[in-house]
Amino acid sequence: MTPHGNPIWALISTFGLMSLFAVGGAAAAVPEMHRIAVEVHHWMSEKQFADAYAISQLSPGPNVLIVTLIGYSVAGIPGALAATLAMCLPTALLAYSVSRLLNRSTRSRWPAIIQAALVPLSIGLMAASALILAQATDKNLVALLLTGVVAVAAFATRMNPLWLLLAGGILGFAGVV
Fold first, then answer.
1. CA 137, 61, 119 angle in degrees (round to 5)?
2. Sign of the Cα pseudo-torsion (52, 58, 63, 69, in order)
3. Model pTM?
4. b/e for 8-19, b at 16 or more Cβ within 10 A?
5. How confident is the model at residue 2, as a pLDDT?
6. Nearest Cα residue to 88 out of 111, 69, 54, 62
7. What is the dihedral angle through the alpha carbons of 121, 126, 132, 136, rounded to the nearest 10 degrees?
8. What distance in Å separates the CA atoms of residue 79 and residue 69, rounded to the nearest whole number?
9. pLDDT beyond 80 at 114
């Protein structure tokens, strides 16, 4: 049996590898998570993925909760644990090793250069995440306009995003979007 024949091994191998490329955290890997969970493995539908993402953003705690929800969708509680550990453990070990290495070279300019280079990369990955989610959820003009209004409001004001999510949830519950 191949590792991908077993759903637990498929989750571990998928998220273990993805964790090493998730620069900026799990939120930056959302486009790849979407591609793998919806298009490659068909673990979830577009709507299920968008719902899992919304739940992960509304819940307290780290953004990695989306991985836990995908794992749970695939294989229940064992899948949730496997996916979460696979996403967190390799990255944690790598970050620990790199931080020890960078702390040794305090006179070097490389740590500052690396950090400066990662900022636009993280912003681009988060923008790609927003685009993937908008494409998965904005199926009509009202939803598209709501997404645009929320994006502008989030960018132009200091409004807590939870109020925007609450307003979107109420509009969705009312059947507007």
1. 75
2. negative
3. 0.67
4. bebbbebbbebb
5. 41
6. 62
7. 170
8. 9
9. no
